[in-house]
Write a structure and sequence with these properties.
globular; Farnesyl Diphosphate Synthase; 1% strand; two-stranded antiparallel ribbon; mainly alpha
C-alpha cells in the first residue's frame, strides 16, 4: 500500500472512531446545535495527519491500530477545536476551512466557541477512560502530554504569540519559536503519544522527539509556502493572507527558495532520526516526504 492509500485508510478509521465516540457520548440526549457543530467540525474533511502519526508511531512498538485509535481521535478533536477557534473573527477571521464554510459561518460564533470548548474537553475525557489503556500511569502521561501540547505552554501559547506578532517585528528565531508551539507542539505529542502507549524506552523517545520537531517545523514551512503559492480551491482555505497582513513567516523572512531548501533539510533530519527502526519506520519517513511535497 502506498503512502497516500495508508493515509486515506487511516482517515477512514479515525473518522469512524470519532463518529462512534460522539454518538456514544450523545446517547439519549436530544439533538442539539452543539452536537451538530461538533460533528461538522470533526467530520468535515481533513487528512488526519496527526492521528496517522499516533497510529504509525504506536505501530513501531507493536501496538495495533485499534488500540491507538482512541488516542488518535483525541488528538484530532484537539486539532479540530483549534481550527474552529482560529477561524473566529477575533482570531484569523476565516470564512472557509477544508473547502466549506467555517463553523461560525455554518452555525454562529457562540456555537462555534462552545463546539471548540466541547471538543477540547472531550479529548481529555477520551484519554481518561479506562478502556483507553488499563494502566492509569499511561493514561495520566497521555493526559499530561496533551495538556502541555495544547495549552498555554504549547498550541494556545503559540497562537497568543502569533497574534502579538501581527503588531510587532519578529525575526527568524521568533517565528521559529511561535510555530514550534502553535503547530509543532501537537505534532510532537502525536508522535510521542505512540511511544507512550507502546512503552518506548528513553532512547527511543529521544529519537522520536528529534523526528517530531523536524517534522513540525517542516509542516509549518510547507504551510507558509502554500499560503504564498497555493490556490484557494486547492488548499481549501483562503491564501495570500500572510502577505496581505504583513505577517512575519518563514517565507517572508527567508524567501521562497530558501524556505524550500530549509524544508528539504528538515525532511532529511526527520528521516535520519528514524534509522534505528529501519524498514519498520518507512511510513513515518514517507510522512516527512509527504509534508515537504504537500500541496493542500
Amino acid at each position: 500500500m502506498d503512502f497516500r492509500s495508508k493515509l486515506d485508510a487511516c482517515r477512514q478509521a479515525v473518522d469512524a472512531k470519532i463518529a462512534e465516540l460522539l454518538d456514544s457520548g450523545n446517547t439519549g440526549a436530544p439533538a442539539s446545535p452543539l452536537a451538530d457543530a461538533m460533528r461538522y467540525a470533526t467530520l468535515g474533511g481533513g487528512k488526519r495527519f496527526r492521528p496517522f502519526l499516533v497510529i504509525e508511531t504506536a505501530g513501531l512498538f507493536g501496538v495495533p491500530q485499534a488500540k491507538a485509535l482512541p488516542i488518535a481521535a483525541a488528538v484530532e478533536c484537539i486539532h479540530c477545536y483549534s481550527l474552529v477557534h482560529d477561524d473566529l473573527p477575533a482570531m484569523d477571521d476565516d470564512d472557509l476551512r477544508r473547502g466549506r464554510p467555517t463553523v461560525h459561518k455554518a452555525f454562529d460564533e457562540a456555537t462555534a466557541i462552545l463546539a471548540g470548548d466541547a471538543l477540547l474537553t472531550f479529548a481529555f475525557e477520551i484519554l481518561g477512560r479506562p478502556n483507553t489503556d488499563p494502566d492509569p500511569v499511561i493514561r495520566s502521561e497521555l493526559v499530561l502530554g496533551l495538556a502541555q501540547a495544547s495549552g498555554w505552554q504549547g498550541m494556545a501559547g503559540g497562537q497568543m504569540l502569533d497574534l502579538i506578532a501581527e503588531h510587532a517585528p519578529v525575526d527568524l528565531q521568533g517565528v521559529t519559536r511561535i510555530q514550534s508551539l502553535k503547530t509543532g507542539a501537537l505534532i510532537e505529542f502525536s508522535v510521542m503519544a505512540g511511544a507512550i502507549l507502546g512503552r518506548g524506552a528513553p532512547a527511543e523517545r529521544q529519537a522520536l522527539a528529534r523526528y517530531a520537531r523536524a517534522l513540525g517545523l517542516a509542516f509549518q514551512i510547507a504551510d507558509d509556502l502554500l499560503d504564498a503559492e497555493g490556490e484557494t480551491a486547492q488548499v481549501g482555505k483562503a491564501t495570500s493572507k500572510d502577505a496581505a497582513s504583513g505577517k512575519a513567516t518563514f517565507v517572508s523572512l527567508l524567501g521562497i527558495e530558501a524556505s524550500k531548501n530549509k524544508l528539504k533539510e528538515l525532511e532529511g533530519e526527520a528521516v535520519d532520526a528514524l534509522h534505528a527502526w529501519e524498514s519498520r519506520a518507512e511510513a513515518l519517513r514517507e510522512a516527512a516526504r509527504f509534508v515537504s511535497l504537500r500541496r493542500s
